[in-house]
Amino acid sequence: METVYTMPGQAHRMFINVIHACPNACLFCVDFKGDTFYGFDLKRGHPATAEQIITAMDRFPRLLEVTEVYFCGIGEPLLCYDVVVESAIRLRALFARQVMMAVNTSGTFYRWNPRVDFAEHFDLIQVSLNAENEEKYNQICQPKFRGAYRTLMTFLRHLRRFIDESSSSCRVELSVMDTSEVEFLPEKERGRCDIPKPDLDACGRIAEEFGWPLKAKCLMKDCEREEWRLFAEATRSR
Q1: Is residue 13 part of a domain?
Q2: Which member of 2, 159, 182, 232 has the greatest number of CB atoms within 10 A?
Q3: Structural domain of residue 11, as residue ranges?
Q4: What is the C-alpha to C-alpha distance for residues 6 and 175, in angstroms, rounded to an integer?
Q5: This prediction's pTM
Q6: Residue 238 counted as domain residue
Q7: Within-domain flag for 236
Q8: Are strands 4-5 and 13-16 parallel, antiparallel or unpaired?
Q9: Maximal CA-CA distance, the chain
Q10: Is 95 helix (H, G, I), strand (E, B) or coil?
């Protein structure tokens, strides 16, 4: 499993793949689209340790071009809560300049580890909302435990309170995935006639209640193609 990767046209962004495990099995997830992601192997292997993350980051070519670091792979990074926090702290010291540190989470880790103090180590937290209610969430995100949407809402309330009380400068964005471009869904989902779609207006109202913006994301396009292997190889060797 590769720990550090990038994406085409985004040399200024570095992504950290912590673990290939998630409490959800979202119908749009790139986990179901192939063995690699833009040529990088983000699946096979054990969860990364903080030492492995720092070592991989330090060795990655063109590190001086990086201005944004995202803990965001094929999996829920905050299942490895302490690893993420330790890595974020150490990465701050690795860069000789200000780098925007972000984490992408479904919030479902909160069921097992109800903490939000990780926020004090990040500039941006991106939380996947993906639906306006529990029924729709279950259809889109296909969680592996009951009450996942309620867990997400509890996490968001706790996070809002923590940021307010700590006067943290950390920004939070909620997001939904636009599933309307059916041809870019995993192949097993494309033939469905009942693909659920989030109500963007309703999701926007939820985001507004928390005082955070809502971002609509597009599906990843062709990230599983074999020819991306050359991109990954070139990136590693620069």
Answers
A1: yes
A2: 159
A3: 4-228
A4: 21
A5: 0.94
A6: no
A7: no
A8: antiparallel
A9: 52
A10: coil
